Amino acid sequence: MKKLLSVLLIALFIFKPAYSQTFISGIISSNATWTLANSPYVVTANTVIMPNVIINVQPGVLIKLMANVQISLRGTFNCIGTSSDSIWFTANDGLTHWEGFYVDNSSYNPKVNFRYCSVTLGNGIFSVVNYNASTDTLIKLVRCTFKNNSGDIIDENSGIKTHKAYIDSCIFSNNPSHAMYEASNFTIKNSKFYGVSASPLGRAIFSGTYQNTIIDNCEFSGFNDLAVAIQGSITNSTFYNNHTAIATNSNGTPEVHYNNIYDNQIGIKDWQYGAINSPTQITNNRFCNTTNVRKVYGADSYYINNCWCLNDSLQIEASIWDFFDAGSLGIVYFYPYVANCSIIVGSADNNEKIAFSLFPNPASDKLNIEISGSIGEKSLSVYNIQGQLMWQQTARQEKLEIDIARLSKGLYLLKLITTEGSVVKKFIKE
Description:
Structural class: mainly beta
Distance between the termini: 77 Å
Number of helices: 2
Radius of gyration: 25 Å
Number of domains: 2
């Protein structure tokens, strides 16, 4: 009897894990939901999610991947957690890195949709192969955290892309390589990027193509090389404690407006601003760095209405490395300069009595406006970043739609004037 009881106890011990985890590997060819009841999911070998297949992952699910294992994504992977119940990705043994997702956009139309996900210990997370198969938003990340991963979080091959990526309210921390490499056609908002002090790569976002990427209201700190190098726009963001905050690089000439750039060794490494570009691409920023601007090539540059944490033009010139330091370089023109830095960094709403919303933002064709807390006639005006009036209208209704299709891509200000006062909001035309 004693011997039989011992055998039963051993059997129970061996089979108990079967009720608490699900093993994944091979080809997934039909739609499925990964449920909390069957969590954790352990990916034991390379796995392929086939075209047109949709995988939905429930909040609270834990996904563990074994060493060197990769998921090839040709279908759709929806991981939608909640603010109180995230979805977790990590290494099966808690130590050895897994190989991330191979997002195959060569002949398929894959989709990555992550919300409230926490991703750790991956050797690169999204490796994207692009041959212009999709024009959709290929990767969408909202309120996600990427921490302690090696390799690039999003690694796209170079060249012209047709697809897009959207990142909103995410945190990228302690990842020693790029957060985003060849990041063209990206929209990146409300996110934070923290580098690794010992990493020689030390870059947050880099793109070598001429395609636009939008960065708005983000924070960058701790990058040993440079924080951002893109073509597109960088607005309302904060850069501190980086070697170089922004590099225009040989293929990128971003518009840089309303940023707080301080305590970096170099504020802007200026490669290719000059006569072929708008003379007001760098406006209304706060520069307070060891070297505020360092020219690399010969074209002249124009920095309009910026604040330099200095009130004397000779002191400002001393913080800029240009023609006057090396004759082969172009001149950095920084007039007029602003003495009061507080008036240029950000453009927060300035009247709490008026509820005033814009959507969608960014927008491409139509911009919806909703106004409450005000009665009577209202005046609305759209200005570009140079302060030129682009559109104006009076209205009495609380909801209206304006056509912005003819506006060029970039950052704009919409000013509302009512009997209670005025308020200004920013929007981005994409």
